[in-house]
Every structure is written in C-alpha cells, then in structure tokens.
C-alpha cells in the first residue's frame, strides 16, 4: 500500500477504504445476480452513490443519531471483506434490500438514508 500511496499521492487509509468499499459492492452485486439471474446490468453501468449513502450517512434511530456502521455492527477483515456482528444472515438480507432499493428499483437516492429503505426493521413508522 505504501508504494501505491507514494505513486498516486493518495493516503494509504484512503486506498484501503476504496478497496474495502469496492470489494463490498462487488460481493453484494455478485450475490444479487446469483439470486436474480435476470438482472443483467453490468457493474460498470451502475450508479453506486445511492448505495454508498445508505451505509455512510447517519440517521435517527430510537431518538438518537447513529451511523449505519454502528447499527449494522459492520466490521472489516484483513482481506477487506465487509462483515457484520449481527446474528445469522440478517446483515446479508439488509444489504440485499439496500442494493435492490438503491440500484435495481432506484427507490432511494443520495437524499435518503438507511432508515428510508423499505423492509428493514429500523424503518420509520
């Protein structure tokens, strides 16, 4: 990472963040395609900003402002794999709901937050 940072002028932490984010999106994209074989949009043709917004923008939950990282208990492994400490496959199901809302149906955009994604337990009443 250090050499890449020196060559590009981008900090090592930013490079690691970009690798982690890309790997997370790629894994999500591939999982969605596996579950929905008729989804044939190429990854390079997708507008990913709404997806990222759902995992980065703070929102109100039970009267307090919280981050998606905290509420979803997101962790990153040494190989840049994004995981969660939530029980069972809850995180995977949430990620697929976000992908569908942000990428497939475009029901959410960069003005929305995680709480706006339909089907999630934190959804506003």
How would you write the strand order of the largest sheet?
A: 1-2
Work out the radius of gyration.
15 Å
Percent in helix:
40-55%
Overall pLDDT metric: 90
Give a written overview of the molecule:
The longest helix is centred in the first third of the chain and has 24 residues, at 12-35. The chain has one domain (2-116). The radius of gyration is 15 Å and the shape is globular. Strand 3 and strand 4 (82-84) form a beta hairpin. It is mainly alpha-helical. The protein is built from five helices and four strands; from the N terminus they run H-H-H-E-E-H-E-E-H. The chain has helices at residues 2-8, 12-35, 49-56, 68-71, 90-104, and strands spanning 59-61, 64-66, 74-76, 82-84. The strands form two sheets. It has a two-stranded antiparallel sheet. Helix 2 packs across helix 5 (90-104) and helix 3 crosses helix 5 (90-104). Helix content is 46%, strand content 10%.
Keywords:
125 residues; mainly alpha; two-stranded antiparallel ribbon; two-stranded antiparallel sheet; 5 helices; 10% strand; globular
Short description:
The chain has 125 residues and is mostly helical. The chain has five helices and four strands, in the order H-H-H-E-E-H-E-E-H. Helix 2 packs across helix 5 (90-104) and helix 3 crosses helix 5.
Topology of helices and strands:
Layout: H1 2-8, H2 12-35, H3 49-56, E1 59-61, E2 64-66, H4 68-71, E3 74-76, E4 82-84, H5 90-104
Antiparallel strand pairs: 1-2, 3-4
